[in-house]
Amino acid sequence: MRRRNWILSAAGAAGTLVVGWCLMPARSRLGSPGAMLPTQGDVALNGWIKIAADGTVVLAMPRSEMGQGVHTALAMLAAEELDLPLERVRLEQAGADRIYGNVAMIVAGLPVHPSESEPGARTARLRAAEWIIGKIARELGIIATGGSSSVADAWQPVRLAAATARAQLLAAASARWQVPLEELSAHDGLVTSASGRTAHYGELAGAAAGVAPAEVRLKERSQWRLIGRPARRSDSAAKVDGSAQYSADMRPAGLLFAAVCQSPILGATAISIDANEALALPGVHRLVAFDAMGGASAGFAVVGISTWHALRGVAAVKAQWQPGAAAAPDTRRIASALDTALDQNEGHVFYERGDTAKAQAKAARLISASYSAPYLAHATMEPTNCTARVHDGRVDIWAPTQVPQIARAIAAKVAGVDIDRVQLHLPFLGGGFGRRLEVDFVAQAVRVAMACEGRPVQLMASREEDMAHDFYRPMQVARLHAGVDADGTVSSLHIKSAGDAINPRWMERSMPALSLPVDMADKATAEGLYDLPYAIANQRMVHLATRMGVPVGFWRSVGHSHNAFFPKPLSTNWQARPARTRSPCAARC
Question: Which CATH class is domain 33-102+141-239?
């Protein structure tokens, strides 16, 4: 009995701790100055903001620039709160601190219908869910660029960090000049007193670093001078004149080049690789075989003095492949399996309103349609590539990635070193669209670099390899049933879809310690169907998560790309009630 009471008491205490943790505010994302990379002459005021000696503001940048303008947008937030011109903000690649984790992206994954998230309609249950998921996301600290979330996530922490730095600078000037804070103002990178005395931020940074401001206020909307107004993108000039550096442009000293070749059948392995002809070609150095890693298939890479030499070497290799235990995926078989799944399984109900069965029983006309969408590759302008160097127990990678910490983690795993021995250099991305959320190319580059005796290697996939070994938008099928009343009103809409859930597959590859259930309610796959903003009285939106054996991933706009606009109806069936005629509205539906 004593043991049982102890267990109950411990369980109760744990429950109290969990509830207490949930009720507490999320930990601050301001961060300590130590989170910023140490640079001679710069003074860090918090985890986001440093001040250079000339008064330039240095902003930690945890998001990848892949054409969406995030480098400019986040810099605008800092410049606004610090009251200085946008061109006076310099960017620095953020470190690995969890303050840079993308909380907004994870919270946005909650499968919430638009009617529940509109102002005035937000329930206590939704607010509680967002609160708890946000706290968990803050602790996970997953640094990622995706889900159109970069500005939404940075909106509060970057502005608060800049406003805090501004308050510290004003307080430092107040103490140095012995004047009240009310007599000081900040404008264009200068602190000015009522008497006209001025100092730029660099002159005050050292003193400001030791100041804890009494009050920090974000600017009111009426005070904004940059936010919401057109601004010249910080990367435009470099991208126009060709000086912008992408991952494929990296040229560290002693660079070798590698072309990759993966198994032509998913799940297959090489049973023989004859590289004699390839290695006899001028400019070809070696062949490096690798197992399946990072979610990609097994294969090999040929290393040479240029990408052209490496590609010639790959073409000369004679390889035989052994299919895996599972049958090779086949498009027709998958389409049939998805269609069968709709017949046999119910799936997860993402949204339900009214009673679609009753409404359809009373409808003057029923309309049924079946749709399908194929697998699609990302086809980014810059093919998958990564430059890696493994030397003296350290790894350097130059990678176009949307997930820098996951890229570092897999590089460390492949090389057998601690993650703090991996240095990631993050250039511009030549398109992302979700493909750079994967790290297969990082794993392969590091594996090849390990065989190259300390020399850096740039591994590049040909366009054919890039397309044939992507993490595709899932194949999806859906059935729609609508009930139309005699006056042409659509009174019910029942949609059921089937396709692979994306989040569980991605988590298995990228963060196996946090793997998700196979049949989880995956918003990424079902969005664009369950969250349609239609004011139809009776709705039922169901998605069935499947696993078809083809590697799937996040594709730009994710579920919306197929769910909101299915490209090809497989069939349409009109069921007219006796003595009824098809209405124009019904025809449009």
Answer: alpha beta
* Amino acid 576: pLDDT: 55
Predicted confidence (pLDDT) at residue 107 exceeds the cutoff of 50: yes
Give the tens place of pLDDT for each residue, 14-36.
556 566 777 788 899 999 999 99
Residues of the chain with CATH 3.30.365.10: 33-102+141-239, 247-324+379-468, 345-376+472-588
- Eight-class DSSP state of 517: -
Q: How far is CA 155 from the centre of its chain?
A: 17
Q: Average pLDDT, stretch 83-93?
A: 97
Class of domain 345-376+472-588: alpha beta
Per CATH, the architecture of 247-324+379-468 is what?
2-Layer Sandwich (3.30)
CB contact at 8 A, 186 and 163: no
The span from the CA of 307 to the CA of 221, in Å, is: 52
- How do residues 458-506 score in pLDDT, each as one tens digit? 999 999 999 999 999 999 999 999 999 999 999 999 999 999 999 999 9
Give DSSP secondary structure letters for 405-417: HHHHHHHHHHHTS
Q: Distance between CA atoms of 359 and 28, rounded to whole angstroms?
A: 50
* Helix residue ranges, H only, 479-557: 502-510, 523-526
Query: Look-up: residue for tokens 């910023």?
Result: 36
Average the pLDDT over 219-228 and give the result: 97
Q: Are 318 and 267 in contact (CB under 8 A)?
A: no
Partnered with residue 303 across adjacent β-strands are: 258, 286
* DSSP structural state of residue 167: H
